Amino acid sequence: MTEPFSYSTTFKLDKSHFNECYQESVVPDYSLRAYSKAILLVLMGLGLSMFTEIDQYAAWFLIGLGLVEALSVKYQRPWWLARQMLSRGANSQVTLTIDEQGIKSKSAYVDALINWQDISAVQDTEQGLLVIHKGDRNYISNRCLSDEAAAYIHSRGDGKTPAGPA
Q1: Which of 6, 77, 144, 163: disulfide with 99, CB 3.0–4.6 Å?
Q2: How far is Cα 109 from Cα 121, in angstroms, rounded to an integer?
Q3: Where does the YcxB-like C-terminal domain lie (predicted)?
Q4: CA 74 to chain CA mean position, Å
């Protein structure tokens, strides 16, 4: 009888971790569609300013909001990184556990479990693994994985249990 697999490690959600997560899991979109909300806000602000008698502060607020939205699209990476570093989870310790049940992450603010049957694919990236499940994606850095844990994730990631001795 084989012993059930279990792997546990801790890591810190620091700037280098967030930077790696963005680099390995986000595909930046700079198309016109990405700017659509910004364009809409600016056009609404201009429309309010030119064609209504409404207070100009509301119109300029919408124009300013549109410009901020455009900057958030143009500078997606630093914008995302700043938001993560300002979150309450920044610089906290996370315990990652990989076992027969799934992939668990636990910190002072998050207690999440990704069940094996929910995972549809596991993709290798240059610095880790991208776990795709039920319309979502999670990144796991190789810095916090052993070779055995990465191999186990791959073996279970397609929803099938690994073949072992009976």
Answers
A1: 6
A2: 27
A3: 98-150
A4: 18
Q: Tokens for 13, please give them.
A: 């959600």
Residue 139: count of CB within 10 angstroms of its CB: 19
Q: What is the structure's pLDDT at 165?
A: 37
Say how far apart CA 146 and CA 143 lie, in whole Å. Answer: 8
Task: Give the Cα separation of 116 and 50 in Å (integer).
Answer: 56
What is the C-alpha separation between 27 and 71, in angstroms, rounded? 17
What's the rounded Cα separation, in Å, for the pair 137 and 15? Answer: 20
> Tokens at residue 50, please?
């030119």
Residues 22 and 125: their CA atoms lie apart, in Å, by 12
C-beta of residue 95 within 8 angstroms of C-beta of residue 107: yes
How many structural domains comprise the chain? 2
pLDDT tens-digit readout, 52-70:
988 899 999 999 999 999 9
Residue at 137 is within a domain:
yes
Amino acid (one-letter) located at 126: E
Closest CA to 141 of 56, 1, 19: 19
- Do 80 and 52 lie in one domain? The reply is yes
